[in-house]
């Protein structure tokens, strides 16, 4: 899954990304699916770092599903290395759902690569942490073989060089094939190998997987990652990694729920305070015109009104002085200086004069009722259900991506037109 839009030439299967354009010619931006996988509701609970007194990125982000499984991982460091293949995001979503249902999760996962047409199967030997990857080749005619898929991470250019060596032959000068032609696209492989019937028979007799080197293997014996505490940990299998991730993910859902329950309560308290303030002004119980500021502030305190800072004290994720007003038109009230002068009561005293009406009271009561309903709904929702909703949203985003890819493929076919079949002359 692309988290960043590959705007430009980021490389193809031809050279495995080495054929990308220079950095100054490529651009990127955040994909829409990125904020589905990294939900905005998690932002306030992340552990943000600071540098030179400025808040910067968090120590780590927490996705809805383990993205290391989806996009794979490969790297080397001091004393350690790691290698993890890609897995189907839909199957990873299902593994998360199995964990929620307290069923074994991840044991049945096998590597998967988007658009790959070959086979990825467990070997005949009983090795649960290894998979055989086989490309596709078939005898299309007595004197030709079509190769339409290569093993994962065997790039088109490298394979072309291998076929060239088959044409040249060994030291005796006898080639195993006579020639080959190429009909690739950016995303597909298509070689047509030609030679005598005897040459083709020999290749087929040895098996295309062996004679044409169309078999490789993927191992999951070296899964090494940092755990949430920043410690290096080796995982014996994918299921163990999923279990570690899911345990952390559920803890974060509980933190998310606690934060947003607290936020809704405080926002409701803010709205209720505005309603009470406007009604007191309308009834004449609180006079704000033609009076000294200090006297007004004393009256507000004596009537039990809280300052903005008191309402949102110790609320995680809110920058100091952030304005949580809901649908409050023109409530700036003079900015930071006014807030300082009004000692935290700007959310009341900064309201425009036309807000001190019964219509505004009804509007604020409606907003307060909506907050109450939202709060009660969230309090009654188990954290597992919150996760399930996010997983459903991920699947919907994947459907959108698949549809866009399908449209792109159709457009490519339309622009290319009808291509001549191998062996036919173009007209």
Automatic annotation (TrEMBL):
The protein's name in its UniProt record: DNA topoisomerase (ATP-hydrolyzing)
Keyword Cell division assigned: no
The organism's place on the tree of life at top rank: Eukaryota
Positions of region (Disordered): 406-427
EC numbers on record: 5.6.2.2
Example GO molecular function: ATP binding
Biological processes, Gene Ontology terms: DNA topological change; resolution of meiotic recombination intermediates; sister chromatid segregation
Annotated Topo IIA-type catalytic domain residues: 1-391
Reaction catalyzed: ATP-dependent breakage, passage and rejoining of double-stranded DNA
SUPFAM superfamilies: Type II DNA topoisomerase
Lineage: Eukaryota, Sar, Alveolata, Dinophyceae, Peridiniales
Listed cofactors: Mg(2+)
Species of origin: Zooxanthella nutricula
Positions of the catalytic residues: 25 (o-(5'-phospho-dna)-tyrosine intermediate)
EC class of the enzyme, as a word: isomerase
One Pfam family per UniProt: DNA_topoisoIV
Keywords: ATP-binding, DNA-binding, Isomerase, Nucleotide-binding, Topoisomerase
InterPro entries: DNA_Topoisomerase_II (IPR050634), Topo_IIA-like_dom_sf (IPR013760), Topo_IIA_A/C_ab (IPR013758), Topo_IIA_A_a_sf (IPR013757), Topo_IIA_dom_A (IPR002205), TopoII_euk (IPR001154)
PROSITE patterns cross-referenced by the UniProt entry: TOPO_IIA
UniProt key word Lipid metabolism: no
Annotated GO CC locations: nucleus
Similarity comment text for this entry: Belongs to the type II topoisomerase family.
